[in-house]
Structures are given as structure tokens and as C-alpha cells.
Amino acid sequence: MKTRIAVLVSGGGTNLQALIDAQRRGELPDGEIVLVVSNNPNAYALERAKSAGIETAVCARPDMERKLIDTLEAHSIEMMILAGFMAILSRDFVTRWPDRIINIHPSLIPSFCGEGFYGLRVHQAALDYGVKVTGATVHYVNEIPDGGRIICQKAVDIQDGDTPEVLQRRVMEQAEWLLLPRAAQIVAQRIRSESGE
Ligand code: GAR
Q: How many separate domains does the chain show?
């Protein structure tokens, strides 16, 4: 048996693509991405999922969480990966899935994280502060935004003249696309072993 994974997205979906590619290469042996859910019907990530033959769903406001819960339960989802999912999940939602939801954040937590820090804003904040090193973090999701236990991190150098866009791309290439599939396998494997397999 493989851990049944749903990937939650909102935008372009390059992290979703990294997961799909890793799965194809056999680097996610204990998990299977069975569903991609977006809170945004126009997310390009949905096209990436369809091209890979993965089922998709849109769960948007109002009642996003109710729709999400129904969809996840209908697909017997055991683990969720937030891959550029730009909505904050309530305490009620996350406590249903303790240690079963992971998120990728484009900085070295605890820097430049929490409510209001997402996407390019994170990289803009790092450049404004003047740090010389940033990176990415994969962590468990709990009721505190970006506050759950850290699974893995990778540092990336900031270079003179970086713009938020240039830095975002470097952090994705050098950290996010490597870390997320690795973390997904670690958690999928743990869930399998906890279920006694
Ligand atoms: C990624 O950089 C991800 O780390 C970030 O949004 C981007 C989504 O890109 N997530 C957050 O900022 C969450 N707070 P993608 O749709 O191409 O994967």
C-alpha cells in the first residue's frame, strides 16, 4: 500500500511538478499523488495535474474548508502537501490531520514567515532586510502559520543585484524542488510504518 497524497495548490505549480517528476523517477516509493486540489479555478497547477493524469478538484470560498474536507474524505486522503497553497487553514481543520499536512515555505523559518509572508513578498522581505543567505523550509502544519515542526531546510545564497523574481527562481531551483519530494517521501514512509506495513 502507498500513502494516499493530496497536493493543495493555488498558482503555477512548479513544486507540484517537482513532486510529479520525483514520483515518475521512483523517488516517492511510499506515496502516491492521487488528487490535486486548488482554491483557485484558474491555477495553472491544475493543468499540470491533468497532463500527468492526476484527478483534480477546485475548493474555493465560500465554505472552502467544508468542501476540502468532503473532497479529501471522498478520496481517502491520508496526507496533504501544501505546495504554493495561498490560504491559511483554520485550527479546526489542521487538528483533524495532526502530522499529516506539510508545507513548503520559501525562506529559512523562523525568518520571513507567518501571516502575510507568501510568494514574492517573502523574497522582497529578505532583500529589504539585507540578509546574505535565505532558503526554503518544509514543515508540518499546525494552527500557527508556518509554526509547525521543521522537517528539512536548505540554504541559498543571495547575490548582489538580486530582484525578488530572480531570488525566487534560485530558491526554487536550489532548494524547493529538491526538498519537497524528499520531505514527502519521509512523511509518506512514516505514515505507512505507523499503519503497521
Ligand atoms: C513557492 O515559492 C512556495 O514556496 C511559495 O509559493 C511559491 C509557489 O510556487 N509558498 C508560500 O509562499 C507559502 N507561504 P509554485 O506554485 O510554482 O509551486
A: 1
Check which CATH number belongs to the domain holding 174 and give it: 3.40.50.170
- Give me the residue label for grid cell 486540489: 37
pLDDT in tens, 148-188: 999 999 999 999 999 999 999 999 999 999 999 999 999 99
Answer yes or no: are the C-beta atoms of 123 and 96 closer than 8 Å: no
How does pLDDT run across 40-56, given as a tens digit for each residue?
A: 999 999 999 999 999 99
- The backbone torsions φ and ψ at residue 4, rounded to the nearest 5 degrees and listed phi first, read -85, 115
Does residue 75 carry a catalytic annotation?
no
Residue nearest to atom 14 of ligand 1 (CA): 118
Helix (H) or strand (E) run with residue 4 in it: strand 3-9
Alpha-carbon span 155 to 182, nearest angstrom = 15
- Distance of alpha carbon 190 from alpha carbon 193, whole angstroms: 5
Beta partners for residue 3, in sequence order: 31
108 is in which domain, residue-wise?
3-194
Residue pair 6/68 in contact by the 8 Å Cβ criterion:
no
Pocket residues: Cβ below 6 A from ligand 1:
11-15, 45, 83-84, 104-106, 118-119, 122, 172, 176
Q: Grid coordinates representing 190?
A: 512514516
